[in-house]
Amino acid sequence: MQRVFEALASAPRRKILAYLAHAELNAGEIAARFEISKPAVSQHLSVLENAGLIVSEKRGQYVYYRLVPESLANTLNSYVQEVCPVSRPLKAESAAIAQRKVDTGSR
What we know:
Layout: H1 2-8, H2 11-19, E1 25-26, H3 27-31, H4 38-50, E2 54-59, E3 62-67, H5 72-83, H6 87-104
Antiparallel strand pairs: 1-3, 2-3
Helix pairs in contact: 1-4, 2-6
């Protein structure tokens, strides 16, 4: 439980969770949305994965990340994001990414 709270204590990690709300993204797609170094984004992803909030899957040369929807912490985070004005546009972007992937037939 401590790992979950530590993971959710970081604004960039909460933003990553919002981006993953509707679509899985590869590490590069996630990093492109932040003005921090790729190694810093990688560290944030590692913390989220170690807390059991996301899982990764290597496909070819890319590592894709997605939420673990059964996680109680993700359920609570989703609820909080509904009332958080910062997360709304990020979740909207996540939904748009998911729709584009459906439209183009890719993951």
